């Protein structure tokens, strides 16, 4: 593997050398700023390209934050931000030292994005070399199931959405497919009432509730899928043995029976439901795969059975609740799933970056309705 070393350099040379020794002892290639030759690009541009060229990024965090760049972030912080959506990041934090306040904030951010398996503490360079060797070896073992195949993940996401076409009311369908493709739930675990009960409770009352809290939910296992549904709200969850998740929520808000307003797709509602769906999916993955065998995800979304509905913002709908325009484009063909480019995301993005992802998906969905 190509291993990029990210940290402050001044005063941390011995620790960086220790990481190089650990990586090379396992036969990996090291990418670090000390080895970059002359280039017309700026040093930080070269380092960020090194992050993009690497297979894994090693982040070393000591006492110092580093000098802020034009972005307001230190070079190391910029490298982490560049890496977190693209590459696995192994985080190593020096303990027993006094840290700068900005460094404490950076460490908190880095820990929240990294998995427990890929975070470790160290004291001396020798200690760092030992824990890094172990972490790199553990990461190699986690790749035994193969790397995440983005094309396969997208295909599975689209198939998952296509299988939701039996739903005959306007619905927002969200598919989250993980990689590498492998079994993360045993059949006996999938059929266990404990899991379905926990999912039902979280779907109704959790912080990312996708069901309403006024009606009950039912659960059944069909082939290799656990299906949790709430007929009253026309919402459902499908979870299979590979950790793939499909969430269906109503695409239009519940109307007052006495109101004369027309049904419409409200942009803010769609975005909010996407955020809740991704948050619920992130919570579910933590529940069924705490060891983070699934490292990457693809998120796809579609609005189905809504060809006759217009798309409005909340303010537009409030101004004209009795009128809505329907794009000819939305009436002529079934809506196809949308996804981000690049499609592959760090699994932690489901929780930590759901607002940005939901905003982008909402824009793509809006465009598919000719708006």
Write the layout of secondary structure elements.
Elements: E1 2-6, H1 13-25, E2 29-31, H2 43-53, E3 56-61, H3 75-84, E4 89-94, H4 101-113, E5 119-122, H5 125-142, H6 150-162, E6 171-179, H7 187-190, H8 193-205, E7 218-222, E8 225-230, E9 235-240, E10 245-250, E11 265-266, H9 267-288, E12 296-304, E13 311-312, H10 314-319, H11 328-332, E14 338-346, H12 349-352, H13 354-368
Characterization of this structure:
With 371 residues, this protein is of the alpha/beta class. It folds into 2 domains: 2-144, Rossmann fold; 150-368, no CATH class. The protein is 40% helix and 21% strand. The protein is built from 13 helices and 14 strands. The chain has helices at 13-25, 43-53, 75-84, 101-113, 125-142, 150-162, 187-190, 193-205, 267-288, 314-319, 328-332, 349-352, 354-368; strands at residues 2-6, 29-31, 56-61, 89-94, 119-122, 171-179, 218-222, 225-230, 235-240, 245-250, 265-266, 296-304, 311-312, 338-346. The chain has a 7-stranded antiparallel sheet. Strands 2-1-3-4-5 form a 5-stranded parallel sheet, with helices on both faces. Strand 8 and strand 9 (235-240) form a beta hairpin. Helix 1 packs parallel to helix 5 (125-142), helix 2 packs parallel to helix 3 (75-84) and helix 9 packs across helix 13 (354-368). The longest helix is centred in the C-terminal third of the chain and has 22 residues, at 267-288. The protein is globular. The model is unreliable at 256-261 (pLDDT under 50).
């Amino acid at each position: 593997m190509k291993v990029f070393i990210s940290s402050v350099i001044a005063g941390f040379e011995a620790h960086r050398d220790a990481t190089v020794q650990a990586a090379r002892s396992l036969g990996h290639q090291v990418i670090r700023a000390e080895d970059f030759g002359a280039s017309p690009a700026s040093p930080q541009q070269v380092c960020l390209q090194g992050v993009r060229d690497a297979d894994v990024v090693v982040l070393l965090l000591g006492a110092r934050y580093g000098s802020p760049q034009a972005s307001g972030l230190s070079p190391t912080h910029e490298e982490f931000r560049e890496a977190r959506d693209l590459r696995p990041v192994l985080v190593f934090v020096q303990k027993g030292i006094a840290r700068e306040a900005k460094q404490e904030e950076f460490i908190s951010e880095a820990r929240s994005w990294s998995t427990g398996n890929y975070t470790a503490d160290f004291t001396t360079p020798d200690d760092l070399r030992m824990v890094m060797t172990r972490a790199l070896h553990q990461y190699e073992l986690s790749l035994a199931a193969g790397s995440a195949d983005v094309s396969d993940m997208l295909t599975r996401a689209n198939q998952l959405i296509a299988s939701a076409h039996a739903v005959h009311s306007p619905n927002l369908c969200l598919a989250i497919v993980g990689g590498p493709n492998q079994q993360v739930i045993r059949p006996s675990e999938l059929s266990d009432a404990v899991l379905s009960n926990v999912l039902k409770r979280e779907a109704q009352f959790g912080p990312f509730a996708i069901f309403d809290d006024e009606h009950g939910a039912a659960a059944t296992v069909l082939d290799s899928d656990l299906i949790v549904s709430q007929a009253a709200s026309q919402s459902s969850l499908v979870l299979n043995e590979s950790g793939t998740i499909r969430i269906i929520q109503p695409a239009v808000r519940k109307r007052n029976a006495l109101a004369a307003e027309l049904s419409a797709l409200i942009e803010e509602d769609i975005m909010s439901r996407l955020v809740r769906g991704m948050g619920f999916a992130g919570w579910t993955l933590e529940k069924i795969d705490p060891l983070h065998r699934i490292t990457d995800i693809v998120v796809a979304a579609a609005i189905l059975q809504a060809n006759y509905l217009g798309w409005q913002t909340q303010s537009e709908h409030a101004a004209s609740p009795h009128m809505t325009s329907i794009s000819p484009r939305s009436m002529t063909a079934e809506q196809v799933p949308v996804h981000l480019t690049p499609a592959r995301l760090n699994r932690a993005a489901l929780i930590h970056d759901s607002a940005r992802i939901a905003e982008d998906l909402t824009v793509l969905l809006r465009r598919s309705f000719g708006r």
